[in-house]
Amino acid sequence: MEIVDYNPNFLEDLWQIHILTMPENDLMTKNNFVDEFSQPTRKYFVCLQDNVPVGYIGAFNMIDDYNIIGIAVKKDFQHKGVGTKLINSLIDFAKKENVKSLSLEVDETNLKAINFYKKMGFVVTNIRKKYYKNNDALIMWLYL
Ligand SMILES: CC(C)(COP(=O)(O)OP(=O)(O)OC[C@H]1O[C@@H](n2cnc3c(N)ncnc32)[C@H](O)[C@@H]1OP(=O)(O)O)[C@@H](O)C(=O)NCCC(=O)NCCS
Fold first, then answer.
1. Residue closest by Cα to atom 34 of ligand 1
2. What letter would DSSP give residue 23?
3. Reading across the β-sheet that carries 42-49, which strands appear in turn?
4. Cys-Cys crosslink for 53: which of 13, 59, 66, 135, Cβ 3.0 to 4.6 Å?
5. CA of 112 to the centre of ligand 1 (A)
6. Considering the entire predicted model, what is its pTM?
7. What single DSSP character describes residue 97?
């Protein structure tokens, strides 16, 4: 298993991972997804198993923070350390760029992801009401 930078050849595999793993109310349209991957202010890492993408993380830079746009791991590969590898790659990259924090919004009902972020050291700093249709978003930060 290896973590590599995103390249456009991965796009279709990543879109499939996205639609099969993300909670329904967190789904982007394919156009938005494609658009996100082509923005220069974004940083994406991809996890490959035998040269095939099994997960990705994407974030955008806002001065001294990277806001995580999305992280998803293919179902068969979940809870095997892929998410940890991906987030650690982003942490290392952000530290090298002297960025001070990572931040994100997560659906209050997505307990798997909330557990994951807490294990990585993120703390809940705020709640954004009805951010996802009927559900609130937890705003979480990791200070580097
Ligand atoms: C959230 C997600 C990215 C985590 O990636 P992962 O590769 O499965 O996570 P890891 O194997 O690195 O697990 C690290 C920790 O996360 C938590 N975790 C992972 N899977 C979990 C599960 N099924 N239930 C509860 N906690 C879980 C645990 O704390 C775990 O530590 P442990 O192994 O000591 O129990 C992955 O589950 C996923 O793709 N979910 C669907 C997409 C999604 O909801 N993305 C977040 C949107 S904000």
1. 119
2. -
3. 2-5, 42-49, 52-62, 65-73, 101-107, 135-143, 123-132
4. 13
5. 5
6. 0.94
7. T
